[in-house]
């Protein structure tokens, strides 16, 4: 039964991209399904193996001995959704981490400046959202470095934290990142909000695997036709629930004990 369920989910993913190719959704970048470790098809290592081989440079969570949690938002900046998320975080006095798509940063520089100005951390989420596991090393490096330059021009620093689109990359890419002082940050809590998910389901999905040290995956941007109103509606309730349960909501640098900026060589 589990195998059939996994095949069905992978079929839905393939259908999403087939429709995107016809309609233009996701071009050049769009929020898309997050692939959990158990379903990775192209990675040449499992997430567990990456964590063992590249300790401190590949993470899916922080320490489990403190009630801290990090909220992360992929595919920013997007003028339809990112400002609303920023408004809520500001009102709730919460700092988060936004994973930035390079071409969107160039198109919406003021939104990136606002993210930085309001105390949130910025991570690198590729230039135009390809699957890294399908790219040769040189193209992969260009995706990282081009986005790095775009963010550095706007925010003034080179982000340490990398989130591969779909959570996928290959071991030689991971080795290059670790050698250049990057840290790949995936997640252990998936809101599954990219599916135009209702706020009640966003909350339910987060509750399923939330633990001390969790890194929560959400989105602050999407492709044509994608609707993150469920994410936005769920966010105040999520923050209130976390605080009531005694969690400190912190940016990744605090959760992981690593600076948000990398050392430039």
Automatic annotation (TrEMBL):
Q: What is its EC number?
A: 3.-.-.-
Transmembrane ranges, per UniProt, are: none
Q: Which residues form the signal peptide?
A: 1-31
Q: Which GO MF terms are attached to this record?
A: hydrolase activity
**Where is the NodB homology domain positioned along the sequence?**
67-250
- Which UniProt keywords are given for this protein, alphabetically ordered? Hydrolase, Signal
Q: Which InterPro entries does UniProt cross-reference here?
A: Glyco_hydro/deAcase_b/a-brl, NODB_dom, Polysacc_deacetylase_ArnD
| Listed SUPFAM superfamilies | Glycoside hydrolase/deacetylase
**UniProt-listed Pfam families:** Polysacc_deac_1 (PF01522)
User: Into which EC class is this enzyme placed?
Assistant: hydrolase
Q: What is this protein called?
A: Polysaccharide deacetylase family protein
The organism of origin for this protein: Paenibacillus thailandensis
Upper taxonomic lineage: Bacteria, Bacillati, Bacillota, Bacilli, Bacillales
């Amino acid at each position: 039964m589990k195998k059939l369920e996994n095949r069905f989910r992978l079929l839905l993913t393939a259908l999403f991209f087939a429709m995107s190719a016809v309609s233009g959704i996701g071009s050049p970048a769009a929020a898309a399904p997050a692939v959990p470790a158990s379903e990775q098809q192209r990675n040449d290592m499992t997430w567990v193996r990456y964590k063992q081989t590249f300790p401190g440079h590949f993470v899916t969570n922080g320490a489990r001995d403190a009630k801290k949690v990090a909220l992360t938002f992929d595919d920013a900046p997007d003028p339809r959704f990112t400002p609303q998320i920023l408004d809520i975080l500001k009102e709730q006095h919460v700092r988060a981490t936004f994973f930035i798509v390079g071409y969107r940063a160039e198109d919406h520089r003021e939104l990136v400046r606002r993210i930085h100005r309001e105390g949130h951390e910025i991570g690198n989420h590729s230039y135009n959202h390809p699957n890294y596991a399908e790219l040769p090393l040189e193209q992969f490096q260009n995706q990282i470095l081009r986005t790095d330059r775009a963010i550095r021009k706007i925010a003034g620093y080179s982000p340490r934290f990398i989130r591969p689109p779909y959570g996928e990359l290959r071991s030689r890419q991971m080795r290059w990142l670790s050698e250049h002082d990057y840290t790949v940050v995936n997640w252990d809590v998936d809101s599954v909000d990219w599916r135009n998910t209702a706020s009640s389901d966003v909350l339910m999905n987060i509750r399923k695997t939330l633990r001390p040290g969790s890194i929560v995956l959400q989105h602050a941007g999407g492709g044509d036709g994608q609707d993150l109103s469920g994410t936005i509606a769920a966010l105040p309730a999520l923050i209130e629930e976390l605080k009531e349960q005694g969690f400190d909501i912190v940016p990744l640098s605090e959760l992981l004990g690593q600076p948000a900026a990398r050392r430039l060589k």
